[in-house]
Amino acid sequence: MTTVLEPATRHSGLDHRELRAAAVRVLLANWSGKGTVPSRSLYPHQWSWDSAFIAIGLRHLSPRRAQQELEWLLSAQWADGRVPHIAFNPEVPADAYFPSPDFWRSSRAGRHRGAPAHTETSGIVQPPVHALAAWLVHRADPRESARRGFLPRVAARLESWHRYLATHRDLGGGGLAAVLHPWEPGLDNSPCWDTPLGRVTPAPEDSYHRVDLDHSVAADRPTDLDYARYVRLARDYRDSGYDDGAPHAFQVEDPGFNALLIMSEHALAEILRTVGENPSPALARAERLTAALGERLWDPERRIFAPRELRDDRLLPVAGVSGLLPLAVPGLPRPLADALVSTARGERFRLGQVHMVPSYDLTDSQFDANRYWRGPSWFNTGWLVHRGLRACGHTAAADELREGILHDAWSSGFAEYVNPLTGDGRGIRDFSWTAALVLDLLADPREER
């Protein structure tokens, strides 16, 4: 039975000034000199969507550092437009993380796709939160942004990134961006991927070493079988020369990934308008994406957006937190938004009754309260649902979720994620995006968001 929490118990006795000071300490400790690592232990490099969320929080501490966070990440962009999900720090030992630079071989295997020669990266991508982050960072201090020429420097890179997703990744031909690996939508081992992942032949276990288990308990991490399949997919993509048009065992249109792309297209339009360029292409893409999202990924039976597997061209019968993220899409039709709020409050997610927003359907047999993305509540998806609730006018629910996020961040030691039934912190502590999004939620809610 799902635990029902009393809000007064969850949110009492929280000193916001002390919380802010602690969040600042986490971000300062994880600053590498050029960007922010998610954690000093398990994640010692720069991750793509992590840095976007980190910049959103850093803007309240130092807009200049937030700008630098995004600039350094975008300097690792490939010539074809993709923003890789990891930019490796050459000063970190190669065996500190797997898959390592020697596995991805970006400067060699990705040479024909325009991988940079000066920085080793991964070859896959992560959700495109970057234009949204850049716009919010600019708005935090427009004068400093203008002085440094921040928007003119990032605008072309962001436009190229969005064009890459609109062209190279429209594998289904329906106008949505597809992902080629479970790591790309960010919800790595979600039960949403069990069916398409089940078709993948695992890599031999003696062909790699899992460094993640050196830093976190096995019960919190993906299984060995899932991890072997991740390695196989990444290896096959690398061996194709990172060719998006090659045959891929995993091809999925994810609602969360595309929702974030729509949000960032709207932000990019504002960026382009501000630098004196035509915003129409970004707005047109946003309009097409929003229409395609409803046409291709809405599941009327479950009243949630669901992933579409492209190999069979069918919606997967699942309910993950990525299906709630379109709440934050500007202009989402009101009936869909209302249905999503109803689903969030229903038995599958029990918004307001459990800690934050579970990453997977509480009623499903595959739900696991502790294992990575198979059920735990994450701070970044909670922040996105909060943003969507506020945008849709559900301010009371948004405020309650905000207080729950702040409380869970404090009580868990800025954990990577928490058990949604107990609030116990899981994974890594002193996690950067947890601290960064706390800073954002502590800011004046009247500020432009």
TrEMBL record:
Residue ranges annotated for the Mannosylglycerate hydrolase MGH1-like glycoside hydrolase domain, each copy included: 43-434
KW Manganese (keyword) present: no
Keywords: Glycosidase, Hydrolase
GO MF, one example: Glc3Man9GlcNAc2 oligosaccharide glucosidase activity
GO biological process, one term: oligosaccharide metabolic process
SUPFAM superfamilies xref list: Six-hairpin glycosidases
Top-level taxon in the UniProt lineage: Bacteria
Similarity annotation: Belongs to the glycosyl hydrolase 63 family.
Matches recorded under PANTHER family: MANNOSYL-OLIGOSACCHARIDE GLUCOSIDASE
Name of protein: Mannosylglycerate hydrolase MGH1-like glycoside hydrolase domain-containing protein
